[in-house]
Q: What sequence folds into this?
């Protein structure tokens, strides 16, 4: 219990309670569980396939491995806790666990966006400068790109949970969300949260916004190069080469943009909708990314077939 200078008394709290989807938790838990298992299984199979199949030891597939790792971490950070709330009403989350979850979500979503940007550059070089591709997109390039992705997002998003953790929380401890989103947590504080909110929004629009601009700029240049191709079937082959990646970006950016717009129009939509979209944004792209690449990429399909043959042979 703390007495403030103005004479008011506040009760110090030691944990938060996550509160979401009270009336329809059971029905949401079924598709969410399916998507979680699908995401973990599909990304796991993709990682093992790329690791064991020598023909997939190329920069493009290394970038896809990074994407799968990010998806797995994001799913494990968010979905098990949401399911624990749905099934066992385990709504309590400690301060430290809440701020760790907040950091991982912000950091890894930024890393995923940055990975898509690097993959777009990979497709740009492959389509627009095919003769120079092997000299530009090398294993060293992927290693440097991975270091940039990690450093940029780890450093810039670090201050989001730090600023939230420095706030003074008193009295109310119920987070109206399934996850420890920064804006949902900070509104419980007794302090002024203006700096916290401004930093969150600035970082989000700077990182994700710049990535999306560079991604779509890459695809504009790719489309222009494709339209100039005169060889028979060259345009169709080029579109097929980057089609999988573009579909993945649409999954990622569409859910993100819908979440942003519904959050901005929260007075006109149910407050549960932005919360639901926020949760789904951590699992739907993760579930669909490896499936889209597996279906549309012949090399990955062949690698998965070889992996399944090895498993069957060992079981005999």
A:
């Amino acid at each position: 219990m703390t007495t403030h200078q103005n004479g008011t008394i506040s009760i110090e709290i030691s944990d938060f309670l996550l509160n979401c989807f009270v009336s329809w938790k059971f029905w949401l838990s079924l598709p969410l569980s399916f998507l979680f298992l699908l995401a973990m299984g599909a990304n796991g199979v993709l990682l093992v396939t790329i690791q064991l199949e020598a023909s997939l030891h190329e920069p493009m597939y290394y970038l896809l491995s990074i994407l799968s790792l990010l998806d797995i971490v994001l799913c494990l950070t968010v979905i098990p806790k949401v399911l624990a709330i749905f099934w066992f009403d385990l709504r309590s989350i400690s301060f430290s666990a809440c701020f760790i979850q907040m950091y991982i979500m912000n950091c890894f979503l930024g890393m995923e966006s940055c990975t898509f940007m690097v993959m777009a550059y990979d497709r740009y070089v492959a389509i627009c400068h095919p003769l120079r591709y092997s000299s530009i997109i090398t294993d060293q390039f992927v290693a440097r790109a991975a270091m940039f992705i990690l450093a940029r997002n780890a450093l810039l998003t670090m201050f989001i949970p730090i600023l939230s953790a420095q706030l003074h929380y008193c009295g109310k401890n119920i987070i109206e969300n399934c996850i420890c989103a920064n804006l949902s947590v900070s509104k419980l504080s007794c302090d002024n949260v203006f700096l916290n909110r401004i930093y969150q929004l600035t970082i989000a629009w700077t990182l994700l916004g710049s990535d999306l601009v560079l991604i779509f700029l890459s695809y504009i240049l790719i489309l222009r190069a494709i339209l100039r191709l005169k060889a028979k079937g060259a345009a169709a082959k080029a579109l097929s080469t980057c089609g999988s990646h573009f579909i993945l970006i649409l999954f990622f950016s569409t859910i993100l943009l819908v979440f942003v717009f519904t959050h901005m129009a929260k007075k006109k939509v149910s407050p549960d909708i932005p919360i639901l979209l926020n949760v789904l944004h951590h699992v739907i792209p993760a579930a669909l990314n490896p499936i889209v690449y597996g279906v549309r990429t012949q090399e990955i399909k062949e690698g998965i077939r070889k992996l399944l043959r090895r498993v069957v042979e060992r079981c005999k």
User: Anything to note?
Assistant: The first strand starts at residue 2 and ends at 3. The radius of gyration is 22 Å. Residues 11-315 form a domain with the Rhopdopsin 7-helix transmembrane proteins fold (CATH 1.20.1070.10).
